[in-house]
Amino acid sequence: MSLHPQLHAITERIVRRSAASRAAYLAGIDAALRDGPFRSRLSCGNLAHGFAACGGTDKGRLRGGVTPNLGIITSYNDMLSAHQPFETYPEQIREIAREWGATAQVAGGVPAMCDGVTQGRGGMELSLFSRDVIAQSTAIGLSHDMFDAAIYLGVCDKIVPGLLIGALAFGHLPSVFVPAGPMTPGIPNKQKAEVRERYAAGEATREELLEAEAASYHGAGTCTFYGTANSNQVLLEAMGVQLPGASFVNPEQTLRGALTREATVRALEMTALGDDYRPIGRIIDERAIINAIVALMATGGSTNHTIHWIAVARAAGIVVTWDDMDQLSQLIPLLTRVYPNGEADVNRFAAAGGPAFVFGELIRAGLMHGDIVTVARGGMADYAREPRLQDGQVVWVDGIIRSADEDVARGVDNPFESQGGLRLLRGNLGRSLIKLSAVKPQYRSIEAPAVVVDAPQVLNKLHAAGLLPQDFVAVVRYQGPRANGMPELHSLAPLLGLLQNQGRRVALVTDGRLSGASGKIPAAIHMTPEAARGGPLGKLREGDIIRLDGEAGTLEVLVDEAEWAARTHAPNTAPAANDLGRNLFAVNRLVVGPADQGAISISCGPAAADGSAWDYDAEYELGHDAAAADAPHEAKDA
To answer: Could you tell me whether strands 430-435 and 523-528 are parallel, antiparallel, or unpaired per DSSP bridges?
Structure first.
C-alpha cells in the first residue's frame, strides 16, 4: 500500500526542517567508526582494565579483539515490579553470547524511579529530570569504548526515553531494547478507579483502598494499564529497535526468555564485524520517529511522550514539534481502547491482536512507514507478525487481520474515533495538550470559572472545606519544568473524577504533567510558556472564566484585552518542598527547556562545528505553527 499523501507531506516537512542537524548527527556517527572492534584502539593498559575481572574464556576473546562484545545497560532494581525481572538477564545474555563465540559485559546501570510510588510526593520533582540523568548514565557506561553493540534493559516511564537518548549519543553502535513484560491481570482497572473515587469521597477506608491497589499491582512485571511504560514498548516496536511482539509477553512465560535469547543473537549479528551492520543512529530516522508518533496516536498512548519523543528525536538530529503531533493525531484513527481509554488492560489488548494487529492495519492503510530498517531481519513487515515458540526457537507468524475483541482493538475501516488521542490547544493562555481519547465527547468542552492554586494539595483542601464551585476549571500553576521539575499531578484524578461523576462540570489546566494514565476529565496539560517563565497562567485570577474546547483545539480566558494586558504575574505561593535530593537538581531547573521542546536539561543531539550543542532554535523557530514556520524552508528549497 502506498503511503498516505498527508503522511508523506508531514514526513517530508520534518526531513527538510531537520536536514542540517540530521546531517551533522550522521557525520558524527561516521566519524566514530573505525576498522575492527573499538576496543582494538585501546592501549594495553586500557584493555587490561576492561577485561581484568572476566573469566578465562571471555578474557581470551576480549584480548584477541576479533569477536563481538556486547555492552549491557540495565535499569534493574528489585523494588520496582517492572524492573525486578532484569536481575537474571545479564547472566542469560552472557551465556548466549558465549555460545555464539562472543562476550557480553554489564557496561553500567541506570536509575529507575517509579512515578506510581512518588505520586503526590516530593520525589516526583525529580522524575522528569531522571530521564536526562539516565541518558548521561548510559553514556558513562558506554564511554569505555569496549563494545561492538549494546543491549538495553528498561521498561518504564523516563527509563526508556533516557536510554534512547543515551543510545543515540552512541549511534554508531547497533542496539536492541529488551523488555521484561507486563504482570498478569489483577482486579479490573475500572474497579480500582471506583475504589479510589470512593476513598476521595470519604466512602472507603484506607484498608479498602490499599487492598484494591495491592490486588491491581500484585507481582513482577509492568503495571497492566496503558500508561507511559507500556506506551514505551509499543513505540519501541514502531521504531524497529525492539523485537516484534516482545512488548506484552509476561515475565514468567517461556517465550519471554526465548525472546531475550533472540534479541542477544540479533545484537551479535548486527555488529560491524559481520555483514548485517545496523547502527541505531541510522535505524532511528525521521520515518521511525513518525512511526512512533503514529503508534502513539492510534493506540491512545501516554501524554508524556509528547515531551519525551521530541527529546528522543533531537538526540538523533531530528526536529519534531507539537504541531506535527497534532496534525498526525488528526490523520490517524484511534484503533484501541485500553485503560485509561477503555476498560481492558494490556494483556487483553495483546490477546485482541496487540501491536501486530494495529501495525498491520496502519501499514496496509498507508498510515505508517513500512519500509524502514529495523532490528528484525525482515524489516517493518515483521512487526505485523507475532512471535511463537517452535521446538524451543522463536518463529514469527502472520498476525491476525481481524480483531479478536472489537471492544479493545479495531481496524482502520471501523475505528473507535476517526482521529487519534491527542489535540494541541491554542489560545491566549499559551499552548497545551489534551488527551481526548480518554474523555467522553460530552465532557470535551467547558466554560466555567477558574479555581487558581499553586499546589495540587490546596485543591483537595478546598474540596474538604466545601469551597469549590459547582462547576469550575482547576488551574494548577507553577508546576512546569523550571518551577519544580514538572511533576505528574495524577493524585488529583480521583477528586476531579468523583466531582464529574456527581454531575458537575470540571476540568484541569496546568503547566505540569498529569500522567501516562491521563483519565476521564478534560485536562489541558504541559502548558507553555509555563508560569515560572512568565507564562499567561501567572496572570489568571480566581473566578476568571475559562473556555476549553478540545474538539476545536482552543483554550482561552475570557477577560477584557486591556485588563489582561495590564495584569501583573502573581507570585508562586506554593510551600517550599522538602529537599529529598531536590537541591541536587537546581541546575537542571535553571537550564531546562520548555515542554514543547522536550523539557531537556542536557545537551541533546549533534554538536555544532565548534563543539558546542546544536542550536535548534537558530535552525528552526520552535513554538509556532509547523506549516507557517516551515514556509521559508520550502521557499529556499524551491
So the answer is: antiparallel
State the sign of the Cα–Cα–Cα–Cα dihedral 198, 204, 209, 211: negative
How do residues 148-207 score in pLDDT, each as one tens digit?
Answer: 999 999 999 999 999 999 999 999 999 999 999 999 987 777 787 788 778 777 888 888
What phi, psi does 263 have (nearest 5°)? -65, -40
Please check whether residue 225 lies inside any domain of the structure: yes
Is residue 631 included in any domain, yes or no? no
DSSP-assigned states of every residue in 334-349: B-B-BTTSSSB-HHHH
Q: 623 pLDDT exceeds 50?
A: no
Strands 393-398 and 385-390, how do they pair? antiparallel
Can you tell me the distance from the alpha carbon of 509 to that of 477, in angstroms, rounded to the nearest whole number?
8
Q: Collapsing DSSP states into helix, strand and coil, what is residue 66?
A: coil
Over residues 427-446, the pLDDT tens digits come to: 999 999 999 888 999 999 99
Same domain, 394 and 245: yes
User: What is the tally of structural domains in the chain?
Assistant: 2
Tell me, yes or no, if the pTM score tops 0.90: yes
Count CA within 13 A, CB hemisphere, residue 464: 8
Question: Is 156 within any annotated ligand binding site?
Answer: yes
**Which pLDDT does position 36 carry in this prediction?**
58
Check whether residue 294 and residue 437 sit in a common domain: no
Quick one: CA torsion of 568, 574, 579, 585, rounded to 10 degrees?
Answer: -40
At 504-524, the pLDDT tens digits run: 999 999 999 987 666 789 999
Average pLDDT over residues 238-245: 98
**Does 227 score more than 70 pLDDT?**
yes
Look up the domain containing 547 and give its range: 422-566
Q: Do the strands 175-178 and 393-398 form a parallel or antiparallel pair, or are they unpaired?
A: unpaired
Residue 559 has pLDDT above 80, yes or no: yes
Q: Tell me which DSSP letter residue 46 carries.
A: H
Cα–Cα dist 162/228, whole Å = 13
Alpha-carbon dihedral angle through residues 49, 51, 55, 58, given to the nearest 10 degrees: -170
Q: Does residue 274 sit in the same domain as residue 338?
A: yes
Distance CA 559, CA 386 (A): 55
Torsion of CA 334, 338, 340, 346, to 10 degrees: -140
In terms of domains, do 391 and 471 share one?
A: no
Q: For residues 351 and 471, state if they share a domain.
A: no
Q: Does residue 385 contact residue 245 with C-beta atoms inside 8 Å? A: yes
114 is in an annotated binding site: no
Q: Which residues lie below 8 Å from residue 171, measured CB to CB, with a gap of 6+? A: 25, 28, 29, 32, 279, 280, 281, 282, 284, 316
CA distance 160 to 319: 19
Question: Do 389 and 484 reside in the same domain of the chain?
Answer: no
Closest by Cα among 120, 117, 118 to 491: 120
- The pair phi, psi for residue 409, each rounded to 5°, is -140, 140
